[in-house]
Amino acid sequence: MTDRIELRGLRAVGTHGALPEEQWRAQPFEVDLDVEADLLGPGQSDDLHDTLDYGALAHAVERVVTQERFHLLERLAERIAEDVQADARVRAVRVTVRKLPPPVAVDLASAAVTITRP
Hints:
Blueprint: E1 4-14, E2 27-37, H1 40-45, H2 54-67, H3 73-84, E3 90-99, E4 111-117
Antiparallel strand pairs: 1-2, 2-3, 3-4
Helix pairs in contact: 2-3
């Protein structure tokens, strides 16, 4: 059985990137999060304390994006995964981080990194 909590399109402004202007200019980022956990208990109890609160997950993602700084999207995604996996109930996590839009010389809506951690 694979139970999953999904968060889609969480947007936050952060300062991440390898280019000099990205080190001081905040930019919009979008995060998708898939968290695998056993949801049988909360599915039966209907009690928020028995599950992973998606509001708390969203705030954790937002905190990492807005309060920490990294050169690479890969590191930003990894830090989000680390925060989510601090809860022992998490079996696996998949994180997609998009830069909206990336600072490149072509018309590109976003650049993204997706990682999966057991």
